Write the C-alpha coordinates for this entry.
Amino acid sequence: MESLYHICFTSHNLVMFRSENDYKRAFNCLAMAVNKTGSKLIAYAFMSDHVHLAISTNDVSAVVSSFRIRYNKYFNCKYRRKGNLGERRYFYNELKGSNHIMAAISYILKNPLHHNITRSPLGYPFSSVRCYFSDQIWGEEKVKTLNDSRAIREYISYRDSFPSNYEISCNGHINPKSVVEYRFVENYFRTPAIFSYFLYRKSGEDWKIEQEQDKNGIPPIDLGVIESGTQCNIHAMLMNERGRRNIFVISDLELCKIIDDKFLPVLHKESFTELLPYQKSNIAEKMIQKFGATSKQVKRCLG
Protein backbone atom coordinates (compact mmCIF):
# COMPACT_ATOMS: atom_id res chain seq x y z
CA MET A 1 0.00 0.00 0.00
CA GLU A 2 1.36 3.42 -0.97
CA SER A 3 2.30 5.72 1.92
CA LEU A 4 4.03 9.07 2.29
CA TYR A 5 7.60 9.08 3.64
CA HIS A 6 10.40 11.46 4.48
CA ILE A 7 13.67 9.91 3.26
CA CYS A 8 17.24 11.03 3.94
CA PHE A 9 20.57 9.61 2.81
CA THR A 10 24.04 10.97 3.36
CA SER A 11 27.61 11.19 2.09
CA HIS A 12 29.69 12.53 4.95
CA ASN A 13 33.15 11.90 3.49
CA LEU A 14 32.63 13.14 -0.08
CA VAL A 15 30.28 15.77 -1.50
CA MET A 16 27.64 14.31 -3.78
CA PHE A 17 27.29 17.40 -5.98
CA ARG A 18 30.34 19.40 -7.10
CA SER A 19 28.67 21.66 -9.65
CA GLU A 20 25.29 23.10 -10.59
CA ASN A 21 25.11 20.59 -13.42
CA ASP A 22 25.58 17.76 -10.90
CA TYR A 23 22.55 18.98 -8.97
CA LYS A 24 20.49 19.13 -12.16
CA ARG A 25 21.60 15.69 -13.32
CA ALA A 26 20.74 14.38 -9.87
CA PHE A 27 17.20 15.64 -10.31
CA ASN A 28 17.01 13.86 -13.69
CA CYS A 29 18.03 10.66 -11.92
CA LEU A 30 15.44 11.22 -9.22
CA ALA A 31 12.69 11.94 -11.76
CA MET A 32 13.42 8.72 -13.63
CA ALA A 33 13.60 6.73 -10.38
CA VAL A 34 10.21 8.09 -9.32
CA ASN A 35 8.71 7.15 -12.69
CA LYS A 36 10.26 3.68 -12.74
CA THR A 37 8.94 2.78 -9.29
CA GLY A 38 5.49 4.28 -9.84
CA SER A 39 6.04 6.71 -6.96
CA LYS A 40 5.10 10.37 -6.49
CA LEU A 41 7.60 13.11 -5.65
CA ILE A 42 6.16 15.56 -3.12
CA ALA A 43 9.24 17.58 -2.10
CA TYR A 44 13.03 17.44 -2.23
CA ALA A 45 16.14 19.30 -1.13
CA PHE A 46 19.60 18.38 -2.45
CA MET A 47 22.38 19.44 -0.10
CA SER A 48 26.07 18.95 -0.88
CA ASP A 49 26.47 15.88 1.33
CA HIS A 50 22.92 14.65 1.90
CA VAL A 51 19.46 14.51 0.34
CA HIS A 52 15.98 15.01 1.80
CA LEU A 53 12.91 13.67 -0.01
CA ALA A 54 9.18 13.46 0.61
CA ILE A 55 7.85 10.66 -1.57
CA SER A 56 4.61 8.73 -1.79
CA THR A 57 5.55 5.14 -2.58
CA ASN A 58 4.93 1.51 -1.71
CA ASP A 59 8.66 0.68 -1.83
CA VAL A 60 11.10 3.12 -0.21
CA SER A 61 14.09 0.88 -0.90
CA ALA A 62 13.33 0.68 -4.63
CA VAL A 63 13.14 4.47 -4.98
CA VAL A 64 16.40 5.07 -3.10
CA SER A 65 18.23 2.29 -4.93
CA SER A 66 17.03 3.38 -8.38
CA PHE A 67 18.12 6.97 -7.79
CA ARG A 68 21.49 6.16 -6.23
CA ILE A 69 22.50 3.61 -8.87
CA ARG A 70 21.78 6.12 -11.64
CA TYR A 71 23.51 9.05 -10.00
CA ASN A 72 26.44 6.98 -8.73
CA LYS A 73 27.14 5.84 -12.29
CA TYR A 74 27.06 9.43 -13.58
CA PHE A 75 29.27 10.76 -10.76
CA ASN A 76 31.87 8.00 -11.07
CA CYS A 77 32.09 8.41 -14.84
CA LYS A 78 32.42 12.19 -14.66
CA TYR A 79 35.00 12.27 -11.87
CA ARG A 80 36.93 9.10 -12.75
CA ARG A 81 36.28 7.17 -9.57
CA LYS A 82 34.95 3.79 -8.50
CA GLY A 83 32.80 2.55 -5.65
CA ASN A 84 29.66 3.69 -3.88
CA LEU A 85 28.92 7.34 -3.31
CA GLY A 86 27.88 7.98 0.27
CA GLU A 87 26.82 5.74 3.11
CA ARG A 88 24.80 2.64 2.22
CA ARG A 89 22.34 3.25 5.04
CA TYR A 90 19.39 5.58 4.60
CA PHE A 91 16.81 6.94 7.03
CA TYR A 92 13.07 7.27 6.59
CA ASN A 93 9.92 7.88 8.57
CA GLU A 94 6.26 7.72 7.60
CA LEU A 95 4.21 10.92 7.43
CA LYS A 96 0.58 10.88 8.54
CA GLY A 97 -1.86 13.68 9.25
CA SER A 98 -2.05 17.19 7.83
CA ASN A 99 0.03 18.91 10.54
CA HIS A 100 2.66 16.14 10.41
CA ILE A 101 2.93 16.37 6.63
CA MET A 102 3.05 20.18 6.55
CA ALA A 103 5.79 20.24 9.20
CA ALA A 104 7.88 17.66 7.31
CA ILE A 105 7.60 19.49 3.99
CA SER A 106 8.47 22.78 5.70
CA TYR A 107 11.59 21.32 7.31
CA ILE A 108 12.71 19.78 4.01
CA LEU A 109 12.37 23.09 2.17
CA LYS A 110 14.01 25.03 5.02
CA ASN A 111 17.06 22.76 4.97
CA PRO A 112 19.32 25.22 3.08
CA LEU A 113 18.52 27.86 5.70
CA HIS A 114 19.26 25.45 8.54
CA HIS A 115 22.60 24.58 6.96
CA ASN A 116 23.63 28.21 6.52
CA ILE A 117 23.64 28.00 2.72
CA THR A 118 21.05 30.68 2.03
CA ARG A 119 19.27 33.51 3.82
CA SER A 120 15.91 32.45 2.43
CA PRO A 121 14.54 29.01 1.52
CA LEU A 122 12.84 30.64 -1.47
CA GLY A 123 16.22 31.54 -2.92
CA TYR A 124 17.66 28.02 -2.98
CA PRO A 125 17.79 26.59 -6.52
CA PHE A 126 18.26 22.90 -5.68
CA SER A 127 14.99 22.15 -3.92
CA SER A 128 11.35 21.95 -4.96
CA VAL A 129 10.48 25.21 -3.20
CA ARG A 130 9.79 27.10 -6.45
CA CYS A 131 7.31 24.47 -7.67
CA TYR A 132 4.54 25.48 -5.28
CA PHE A 133 2.28 28.50 -5.94
CA SER A 134 4.82 29.39 -8.62
CA ASP A 135 2.45 31.39 -10.82
CA GLN A 136 1.37 33.51 -7.85
CA ILE A 137 4.78 33.97 -6.21
CA TRP A 138 7.17 34.04 -9.18
CA GLY A 139 4.95 34.64 -12.18
CA GLU A 140 4.70 32.40 -15.21
CA GLU A 141 8.08 31.05 -16.30
CA LYS A 142 8.48 29.81 -19.84
CA VAL A 143 11.12 27.19 -20.51
CA LYS A 144 12.06 26.13 -24.03
CA THR A 145 11.56 22.37 -24.08
CA LEU A 146 12.66 19.48 -26.25
CA ASN A 147 9.88 17.65 -28.08
CA ASP A 148 11.87 15.50 -30.48
CA SER A 149 12.25 12.00 -29.03
CA ARG A 150 15.71 11.53 -30.55
CA ALA A 151 16.94 14.78 -29.00
CA ILE A 152 15.56 13.72 -25.62
CA ARG A 153 17.47 10.46 -25.83
CA GLU A 154 20.73 12.39 -25.87
CA TYR A 155 20.08 12.98 -22.17
CA ILE A 156 17.76 10.12 -21.15
CA SER A 157 18.72 6.47 -21.58
CA TYR A 158 16.75 4.38 -24.07
CA ARG A 159 16.30 1.89 -21.24
CA ASP A 160 14.11 4.41 -19.41
CA SER A 161 10.53 5.16 -20.30
CA PHE A 162 10.24 8.93 -20.60
CA PRO A 163 6.76 10.06 -19.46
CA SER A 164 4.84 12.31 -21.83
CA ASN A 165 4.05 14.74 -18.99
CA TYR A 166 7.73 15.32 -18.19
CA GLU A 167 9.22 18.47 -19.70
CA ILE A 168 12.92 18.59 -20.53
CA SER A 169 14.79 21.76 -21.43
CA CYS A 170 17.10 22.18 -24.39
CA ASN A 171 20.11 21.73 -22.08
CA GLY A 172 18.84 18.33 -20.97
CA HIS A 173 17.43 19.18 -17.55
CA ILE A 174 14.00 17.89 -16.57
CA ASN A 175 11.69 20.64 -15.36
CA PRO A 176 11.00 19.93 -11.63
CA LYS A 177 7.47 21.31 -11.82
CA SER A 178 6.56 18.65 -14.39
CA VAL A 179 7.57 15.95 -11.89
CA VAL A 180 6.77 17.30 -8.41
CA GLU A 181 3.19 16.81 -7.18
CA TYR A 182 2.88 20.50 -6.41
CA ARG A 183 -0.91 20.54 -6.24
CA PHE A 184 -0.77 17.97 -3.44
CA VAL A 185 1.32 20.41 -1.40
CA GLU A 186 -0.76 23.43 -2.37
CA ASN A 187 -3.89 21.68 -1.13
CA TYR A 188 -2.34 21.38 2.33
CA PHE A 189 -1.03 24.95 2.60
CA ARG A 190 -4.00 26.43 0.68
CA THR A 191 -2.51 29.90 -0.01
CA PRO A 192 0.92 31.37 -0.88
CA ALA A 193 0.74 33.40 2.35
CA ILE A 194 0.36 30.30 4.55
CA PHE A 195 3.08 28.53 2.58
CA SER A 196 5.50 31.45 3.08
CA TYR A 197 4.55 31.66 6.76
CA PHE A 198 5.56 28.03 7.32
CA LEU A 199 8.87 28.55 5.49
CA TYR A 200 9.83 31.37 7.87
CA ARG A 201 8.12 30.08 10.99
CA LYS A 202 10.56 29.42 13.84
CA SER A 203 10.84 25.94 15.33
CA GLY A 204 9.15 25.55 18.69
CA GLU A 205 6.81 23.61 20.95
CA ASP A 206 3.76 24.88 19.06
CA TRP A 207 4.80 22.75 16.07
CA LYS A 208 4.74 19.64 18.25
CA ILE A 209 1.41 20.54 19.87
CA GLU A 210 -0.21 20.98 16.45
CA GLN A 211 1.11 17.64 15.22
CA GLU A 212 -0.20 15.84 18.29
CA GLN A 213 -3.68 16.89 17.19
CA ASP A 214 -3.32 14.51 14.22
CA LYS A 215 -3.43 11.58 16.71
CA ASN A 216 -1.52 9.37 14.30
CA GLY A 217 0.62 7.58 16.88
CA ILE A 218 3.79 8.94 15.25
CA PRO A 219 6.31 11.20 17.06
CA PRO A 220 6.11 14.85 15.94
CA ILE A 221 8.47 16.01 13.22
CA ASP A 222 11.25 18.34 14.36
CA LEU A 223 14.83 19.07 13.34
CA GLY A 224 16.12 16.12 15.35
CA VAL A 225 13.87 13.71 13.44
CA ILE A 226 14.48 15.28 10.03
CA GLU A 227 18.26 15.35 10.53
CA SER A 228 18.63 11.91 12.13
CA GLY A 229 21.70 10.31 10.60
CA THR A 230 23.21 13.51 9.21
CA GLN A 231 25.54 14.16 12.18
CA CYS A 232 24.45 17.82 12.19
CA ASN A 233 24.60 20.28 15.07
CA ILE A 234 20.93 20.94 15.81
CA HIS A 235 21.68 23.95 18.03
CA ALA A 236 23.67 25.61 15.23
CA MET A 237 20.87 24.89 12.77
CA LEU A 238 18.36 26.59 15.05
CA MET A 239 20.61 29.62 15.25
CA ASN A 240 20.74 29.73 11.46
CA GLU A 241 16.95 29.56 11.37
CA ARG A 242 16.80 32.61 13.63
CA GLY A 243 18.95 34.62 11.23
CA ARG A 244 22.14 34.43 13.24
CA ARG A 245 24.16 33.02 10.36
CA ASN A 246 27.66 33.97 9.33
CA ILE A 247 27.18 35.35 5.81
CA PHE A 248 30.88 34.97 5.06
CA VAL A 249 30.87 31.16 5.24
CA ILE A 250 31.92 29.62 1.94
CA SER A 251 29.74 26.81 0.60
CA ASP A 252 30.84 23.36 -0.54
CA LEU A 253 29.69 24.24 -4.05
CA GLU A 254 31.92 27.31 -4.11
CA LEU A 255 34.89 25.35 -2.75
CA CYS A 256 34.47 22.58 -5.30
CA LYS A 257 34.27 25.13 -8.10
CA ILE A 258 37.57 26.69 -6.97
CA ILE A 259 39.24 23.27 -6.77
CA ASP A 260 37.93 22.08 -10.14
CA ASP A 261 38.27 25.35 -12.08
CA LYS A 262 41.41 26.86 -10.55
CA PHE A 263 43.64 24.21 -9.01
CA LEU A 264 43.11 21.21 -11.29
CA PRO A 265 44.10 22.95 -14.57
CA VAL A 266 47.32 24.27 -12.99
CA LEU A 267 48.18 20.75 -11.79
CA HIS A 268 47.16 19.22 -15.16
CA LYS A 269 44.52 17.02 -13.55
CA GLU A 270 41.14 16.11 -14.98
CA SER A 271 39.51 15.28 -11.65
CA PHE A 272 40.03 15.78 -7.92
CA THR A 273 40.37 11.98 -7.68
CA GLU A 274 43.70 12.21 -9.53
CA LEU A 275 45.29 14.53 -6.96
CA LEU A 276 48.18 13.12 -4.97
CA PRO A 277 48.09 13.27 -1.15
CA TYR A 278 50.60 16.13 -0.92
CA GLN A 279 48.67 18.10 -3.56
CA LYS A 280 45.46 17.68 -1.58
CA SER A 281 47.25 18.84 1.57
CA ASN A 282 48.56 21.96 -0.17
CA ILE A 283 45.13 22.80 -1.57
CA ALA A 284 43.47 22.20 1.80
CA GLU A 285 45.90 24.53 3.54
CA LYS A 286 45.21 27.31 1.03
CA MET A 287 41.46 26.79 1.27
CA ILE A 288 41.49 27.07 5.04
CA GLN A 289 43.78 30.10 5.12
CA LYS A 290 42.32 32.08 2.21
CA PHE A 291 38.63 31.23 2.35
CA GLY A 292 38.06 30.31 5.98
CA ALA A 293 36.87 26.83 5.12
CA THR A 294 36.78 24.23 7.89
CA SER A 295 39.00 21.17 7.86
CA LYS A 296 35.95 18.88 7.70
CA GLN A 297 34.54 20.84 4.77
CA VAL A 298 37.77 20.72 2.79
CA LYS A 299 38.15 17.00 3.39
CA ARG A 300 34.77 16.18 1.89
CA CYS A 301 35.37 18.51 -1.07
CA LEU A 302 38.71 16.85 -1.79
CA GLY A 303 37.47 13.35 -1.06
Q: What stands out?
A: The beta strands are 3-10, 40-46, 50-57, 90-94.
